[in-house]
């Protein structure tokens, strides 16, 4: 079986190239993706873990109808917040989609800021236990303090490294521990899986003050566009994992009477800036990424054309 696996890997043919556009939230990845999609006549596959939900539009900065019509997009408002959907699910569905798209295009764009989704598609996940919807719902309803305490007991190694600002990852780790009876960290081999496509990674960034100003202004624009009403409609479902995210959590605190509306808006801005900083920290570990500003489309295209 091992020999067959090696032979399969060696003979795997490359079907195309995946152009990966990454960067912090609010930097302008959508516009860059559309520019590249139009230039090359290729589709855009979203790797955003929140834009994938159809009930979340304003707070996730889903591309506008005009932007969506400017290029073919996949995985935008593809699921419901009531469905269980993990990075492992994204890997499986994404690979199926790419297999189909590479039958039509030599290149495909992957655009998004969710590092876990990009990593799942490019490198793969280990064969962990499938998610149990009942258990996932039960865990998602628990306070974060309880989840962290259980994770510390079941898997102290992962407890010390997990991103405390990523509730879904913490829930999944505890879920795996319960389902397998083993520490989550023991089940993660970290081995990269072979993919039938080449990859070119493009990073989009701006000077910090410029990026933070864009984030602040975008939050104000979201409020003007009706984020408060959107969050109010979702408030009854605030316990769902999909809604444990910046932009909604803060407004849920306002609805619960814990903070004022101006305080909620300022928290959204602050927490979004912090999220952007964490995204950049994650991305800068990858030395294969070639960095550009969002207005530098000419040099981005030159880079793509030069590297084959």
Description:
The protein is α/β, with parallel strands linked by helices. The protein is built from 15 helices and six strands. It has helices at about 1-10, 30-40, 65-70, 85-100, 115-125, 135-140, 145-155, 155-160, 165-180, 185, 210-225, 225-235, 250-255, 260-285, 295-305; strands at about 15-20, 45, 75, 105-110, 195-205, 290. Strand 2, helix 3 (about 65-70) and strand 3 (about 75) form a beta-alpha-beta unit. The longest helix has 23 residues, at about 260-285. The two termini are about 35 Å apart. The relative contact order is 0.16. Residues about 1-10 have low confidence and may be disordered.
Short précis:
This protein has 308 residues and is an alpha/beta fold. The protein has helices at 2-11, 29-40, 65-70, 87-101, 115-123, 133-140, 144-154, 156-159, 167-180, 184-187, 208-225, 227-234, 249-255, 261-283, 297-306, and strands spanning 16-22, 44-46, 73-74, 107-111, 197-204, 290-292.
Strand segment count = 6
Largest beta sheet: what is the strand line-up?
Answer: 3-2-4-1-5-6
Backbone shape: globular
Structure classification: alpha/beta
Measure the end-to-end span.
Answer: 34 Å
Largest sheet: 6 strands, parallel
Whole-number average pLDDT? 90
SSE order and pairing:
Layout: H1 2-11, E1 16-22, H2 29-40, E2 44-46, H3 65-70, E3 73-74, H4 87-101, E4 107-111, H5 115-123, H6 133-140, H7 144-154, H8 156-159, H9 167-180, H10 184-187, E5 197-204, H11 208-225, H12 227-234, H13 249-255, H14 261-283, E6 290-292, H15 297-306
Parallel strand pairs: 1-4, 1-5, 2-3, 2-4, 5-6
């Amino acid at each position: 079986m091992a020999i067959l696996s090696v032979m399969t890997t060696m003979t795997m043919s490359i079907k195309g190239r995946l152009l990966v556009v990454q960067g912090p939230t609010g930097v302008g990845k959508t516009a860059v993706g559309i520019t590249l999609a139009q230039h090359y006549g290729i589709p855009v596959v979203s790797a955003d873990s929140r834009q994938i939900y159809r009930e979340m539009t304003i707070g996730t900065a889903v591309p506008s109808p005009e932007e969506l019509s400017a290029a073919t997009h996949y995985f935008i408002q593809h699921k419901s917040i009531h469905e269980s959907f993990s990075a492992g699910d994204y890997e499986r569905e994404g690979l199926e989609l790419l297999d189909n798209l590479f039958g039509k295009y030599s290149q495909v764009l992957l655009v998004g800021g969710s590092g876990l989704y990009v990593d799942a598609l490019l490198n793969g996940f280990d064969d962990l236990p499938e998610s149990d919807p009942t258990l996932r719902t039960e865990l998602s309803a628990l306070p974060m303090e309880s989840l962290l305490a259980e994770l510390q007991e079941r898997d102290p190694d992962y407890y010390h490294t997990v991103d405390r600002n990523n509730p879904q990852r913490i829930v999944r780790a505890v879920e795996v521990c319960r389902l397998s009876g083993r520490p989550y960290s023991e089940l993660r081999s970290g081995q990269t899986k072979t993919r039938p496509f080449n990859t070119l990674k493009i990073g989009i960034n701006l000077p910090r003050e410029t990026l933070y100003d864009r984030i602040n202004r975008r939050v104000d624009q979201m409020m003007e566009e009706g984020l408060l009403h959107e969050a109010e409609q979702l408030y009854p479902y605030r316990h769902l994992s999909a809604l444990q995210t910046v932009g909604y959590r803060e407004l849920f605190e306002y609805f619960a009477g814990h903070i004022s509306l101006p305080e909620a808006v300022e928290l959204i801005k602050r927490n979004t800036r912090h999220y952007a900083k964490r995204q950049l920290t994650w991305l800068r570990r990858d030395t294969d990424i070639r960095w550009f500003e969002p207005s530098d489309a000419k040099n981005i295209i030159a880079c793509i054309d030069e590297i084959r």
